[in-house]
Structure formats: C-alpha cells, structure tokens
Amino acid sequence: MLHLDTMLVHGTKPFDPVTGAISTPIYQSATFRHPALGASTGFDYSRAGNPTCAELEKTIAFLEGGKYGLAFASGMGAISALIKLFHPGDHIIVSEDLYGGTFRLFDEFYAHYGFLFSWVDTSDFSRVTATLRSETKAIFIETPSNPMMKVSDIHLCANLIHQHGGYLFVDNTFLSPYLQNPLALGADFVVHSGTKYLAGHNDTVAGFIVHSRDECEDSLRNIQKSEGAMLSPFDAWLVMRGIKTLGVRMERQSANARRIAHYLRGQTKVEKVFYTGFEDHPQYALSLSQARGHSGMVSFYLKDKADVPVILRNVKVILFAESLGGVESLITYPWEQTHNAIPETMRTNAGVNDRLIRLSIGIEDADDLISDLDAAFLSDRK
C-alpha cells in the first residue's frame, strides 16, 4: 500500500495511457462523438460527465476511501445535491457552528420547501441525542467547526443516526483527506469545498461528495446532471494540480498555525484563542483520536471590538479576504463576512461574536506572519 503523500501526487492514474502525459489532459469539450447509434465512449455531454472531471472524481474518492466521488461547481452545489436525497417533512440535525452559507442554504431555501432543521452544538453529543426524533433522517456536522474549532465525535454520531436508519454527513473541508477520513469512522457522506485546501491556491471554486452508498449513487448522479452544477474541465484540472501538493502544503500550514496560535496567546489585546492543537482544547483528545493533525485554521477573540478594524486595516502580508486553505494567509471577520447570514442570537450562542477574527494560515515564513501581526497589534486606532 502506498503512503498518502505518494497517493496525493499520483492519484488513481499517474499518466495518460494514450499519450503518456504526466498531467491529466484537459478535455475542454462540451460534447463527444458517438461511434454509432446506441454506442458511446462513456462520455456524451460534459454536464453528464467529462474525462478530466471523471479522473478528479476517482482521485477524491480514492483519497477519502470511498467508492464514489462527485465533483460540483462549488461546495454549496455539493451540499444542495445531498439535501435532495430527502423529502419535505424529514428532519436533519446540523452543527450550529458552521459556515454561514450552509445555514443560508438550509434556512432560506430548503426550510421553505418543508425540510426540518435543528441547529445543535454537535460537539456535545448529549445534545445531539436529545435532539433526535422520529422524523430525523440525517446528522450534518462540520468538524472542526467553522469558525469556533469545535470537534464532534464522528463515530458516535454515525452510530446514533444509523440506529435510526439515517445518514451522517461530514464537512471535511477544514482538515482535508490528508488529515481526516470520516468514512473510515462511520460517516456515510463526506463533503468538501474543494476551493479550500484541496485546490489550495485561491484560484478556483469547486465542491465534492464522496460516499460508498450504492443505493444513493444513481440519485446523486441524476441530481448532478439535471441541475447542471458540474465542475468545468479546467477547474477540475486546477484541483488535481493542487491535490498533488496537498501534503507538503498542509504540513507547512499546520506548523505555521501552531506557531501563530501560541504567539496569539501571548498578546495583550487577545482574549482567547481557538485552535484544536492546544492540549487544553475541550476536544483535544477526541481530535487526536479521529484526525492526524490540526490544519492551518486559528480563530481568536480580541478584548476590544475597536481593535477589529485596526487589525484588518494594518495587516499587509496576511490578506484581509474571505475563504481559507490557500497558500496565502488570509484574515476574515466572520461577524460581517462568512457568517452574517446567521441570525445574531444564533451566532452569539455558537460563540461567533463581533470580536472574533479567523485566520487561515498559509505557507509563508512564520516569522514574517508574526511580524505582520505584531505591526497590526501595535497600530494606532486612528
């Protein structure tokens, strides 16, 4: 069995069998010639399947240990497809601390179609158990959560929902298959925003579903084809190129994040730091048991809200931008950016207040990142 770093570089097909090309060709074609009536090469129209996209789908399934992989134009497209496996009246338990776009999709759209959602701190398993009811058909968790870095027990959640005939969905965006494989822990479906660590260069948008559920594959393929949320061939190629360096990027980002997290704890303007790699993190032992590392994500509270615009205005190496997981370090203000679609009460209950800053640490030199933060913390408020 090859090591994971080798698997990342070579994928399922290390070269094109026809031309010998090391890089998977970009089949930039909308349609494909039929050899004869009733005959097909396996590809007819790119919305229903494309050779470049198909290779990426095989690769992401391979890395997550799943049987099937589906690529979408965004992570939200992937999540939307999953919800269509259910019917109005079905109940889904969802992590209350999660990406605001996921909340918006569920609350502003699918709730209006009769789907039922309960928002729960899924890092507290007793609350998950207490929320279960006869209509519950799935549990959807982010772990670690965005942006409070809470860790939910994948194995326990899987066992619980399986006892009730439902499915467990895990958003694995923050850790990627390099650091966590939810299917091996009992999850039924893994979703990714491929825009983030998988692609890794802040230059493309993509989403994925990975699973091994034979009974769901035809439905998901039909949803993907019918809704037209297929990933483009060029974007598929960009993600494959990014995956080749996922291991080295994640190692560097994780090491940098560890240094930044400890640095932040020593800053007088910082009240609290959220990082799953701290030994005093409430779910530190759980994190070690189901993941192989902590990625490049760090969040922290400032003591004074007045320092928020000062920090955001004065960082120079770290870029004030939404998204995460790329080679460039980014700083984000969840209150007004990634999580503003979530009602204020729900945000504050989850810990997302107006003093929270989220960092996605990149591959720059850690000393430069610390110097950049030092200068921002020392900046005048004027």
Structure, described:
The chain has 382 residues and is of the alpha/beta class. The protein contains 14 helices and twelve strands. It folds into two domains: 241 residues, Aspartate Aminotransferase, domain 2, CATH 3.40.640.10; 132 residues, Aspartate Aminotransferase, domain 1 (Alpha-Beta Complex). Helix content is 37%, strand content 15%. A seven-stranded mixed β-sheet has the order 1-7-6-5-4-2-3, with helices on both faces. It has a five-stranded mixed β-sheet with strand order 8-9-12-11-10, with helices on one face. The protein is globular, with a radius of gyration of 21 Å.
Name the features.
single chain; about 375 residues; alpha/beta; Aspartate Aminotransferase, domain 2; Aspartate Aminotransferase, domain 1; 2 domains; seven-stranded mixed sheet; five-stranded mixed sheet; 14 helices
